[in-house]
Amino acid sequence: VWFAESTAFGFTRLKDGELTRNVPKSDQGAPYGVAVDSKGLVWGTLQGANKLVKIVSGEPVAEFELPTRGSSPSDVAADPAGNVWILEFRANKSARFSDGKFSEFAVPGDNAGLSGIAAAEDGSVWFGMLRGHALGRLRDGQFKVFELPRKDARPYTVAIDKAGNVWYADIS
Asked: Checking DSSP bridges between strand 134-139 and strand 155-160, what pairing results, if any?
């Protein structure tokens, strides 16, 4: 189990009852999201430092600056193809990190309140739009917004099961 410790400024692994902390160089970090890709690499976000991190056992934590300054990266997910996806909360964007480079995608609507991200087997990425009362999907560079049945819905976390169903937790 991996988790981000925003107040302890690290990413921690719990395995066999033992905790192992991984601390990034950035002292302004504010770790937020964490995901493990299919190769076992661990990825995390540093909201306060505007960075994506990669954690490899026995190596220093690698840090990658996001292109949009002050974007406040939050949730992170890894897709089956090895791409890492990040939500940029303050920039209203989703970013893909692949082959050492970032690509950014502006999410439709103003200040949607992006939260929760999950990568599907078909290559699509799903996320919540807290202020938009909807779920968003990015596939092949195209966004589609799915309005939720309740007008006050606030989807906060997103998950995709093995059958491809998209699930979300609603904080309202």
From this structure: unpaired
pLDDT tens-digit readout, 61-96: 999 999 999 999 999 999 999 999 999 999 999 999
Please count the helices (runs of H) and the strands (runs of E) in the chain: 0, 17
3-state helix, strand, coil in the chain (%, to 5): 0, 55, 45
- Give me the torsion for CA of 4, 74, 87, 122, rounded to 10°: 20
Place of tokens 């954690």: 55
Strand partners, 85: 77, 96
> Which token pair is 62?
């690698």
The answer to whether the beta carbons of residues 73 and 89 sit under 8 Å apart is yes
Q: Identify the residue whose tokens are 């960075």.
A: 51
Q: Which long-range contacts (CB under 8 A, 24 or more apart) does 135-140 make?
A: 135/166, 135/168, 136/107, 136/108, 136/112, 138/94, 138/105
Radius of gyration of the chain (CA): 16
Whether pTM exceeds 0.90: yes
